């Protein structure tokens, strides 16, 4: 399936699962963006709006519409479609409504049709527009609800499958040929000198993953940088792009969000208070929050993950300005928090 297949006939067929008498007579696509997945805003014309059963006339489509990228994006997009198709409705989160979410294992295609958050006047996070500490605190409260919902639950077993896929992908980014080529780009300008060694970074990540595997798990977003957040006019916050959702340790998400969302100086001023606010929200949501001392050690340890992912991000995954901004913030955090010492590697 390609983006050209998003036609009135296709939309009519899938939307009749929700509104049996609906008929789409015309469709226009705009805001088309090609990254790991292809996304577009969909404008629908209904033959009779009274038979649309409340369906909106704009939606958001996301899929693996570029065949050449499917080999490395398929598992994540499949994971996201399964999340929206089966799990999202059970979670106490601010998420876009789901109108269609299916995968085809034979063609390695996954397609989502979601609520158009522009209609809520949502503002989407950007690396080039750092948030203030209060906005990050609101998002951490939403994140705590996610983590608490299945903290230590047996239902996490299914979600553990994607963890190995993400670890394999991050390890692939650390292959010397790719990593060392990234060290010659602007995104490595701020990299601490000792962390330019891909072997050392890999050992640190393996130590981190071993610690996480021996700890209590919860459902995590899995790639929670500022660009995967949105805010509404009433102050509510939400999370986007669930390709990496999995069972893992809470610190998979929290440092990634705080470090990516705040300017370096603001992060240094506010991160300890923000971590404390997350722990309080986690406890209020019903999960057994760790002690602050334990959480701070986990936070320092996990800062190595953001450093590795940002420093080695392939050029086609994010705009150059986003990669540079993220790399600067994660490199500064690694310099501040010394994840090697926190992980017992010196």
Structure, explained:
The protein folds into 2 domains: 3-120, Phosphorylase Kinase, domain 1; 123-342, Aminoglycoside phosphotransferase (APH), C-terminal lobe (Aminoglycoside 3'-phosphotransferase, Chain: A, domain 2), CATH 3.90.1200.10. It is globular and about 65 Å long. The longest helix has 21 residues, at 264-284. α3 runs parallel beside α8, α7 (254-261) packs across α9 (292-311) and α8 packs across α9. It is an alpha+beta fold and 346 residues long. The model has no long low-confidence stretch (mean pLDDT 93). The chain has helices at residues 8-15, 70-87, 133-149, 161-173, 176-182, 198-213, 254-261, 264-284, 292-311, 320-337, 339-342, and strands spanning 24-34, 38-46, 58-63, 98-104, 109-115, 123-124, 218-220, 229-231, 237-239, 246-248. A hairpin with a 4-residue loop joins β4 and β5. It contains 11 helices and 10 strands. The protein has a 5-stranded antiparallel β-sheet. A 3-stranded antiparallel β-sheet has the order 6-8-9, covered by helices on one side. It has a two-stranded antiparallel ribbon with strand order 7-10.
Secondary structure: number of strands: 10
CATH third-level topology of the largest domain: Aminoglycoside 3'-phosphotransferase, Chain: A, domain 2
Approximately how much beta-strand content do the residues carry?
15-25%
Shape: globular
CATH class of the largest domain: Alpha Beta
The end-to-end span amounts to: 51 Å
Low-pLDDT runs of 5+ residues are none
Characteristics of this structure?
346 residues, globular, 16% strand, Aminoglycoside 3'-phosphotransferase, Chain: A, domain 2, alpha+beta, 2 domains, Phosphorylase Kinase, domain 1
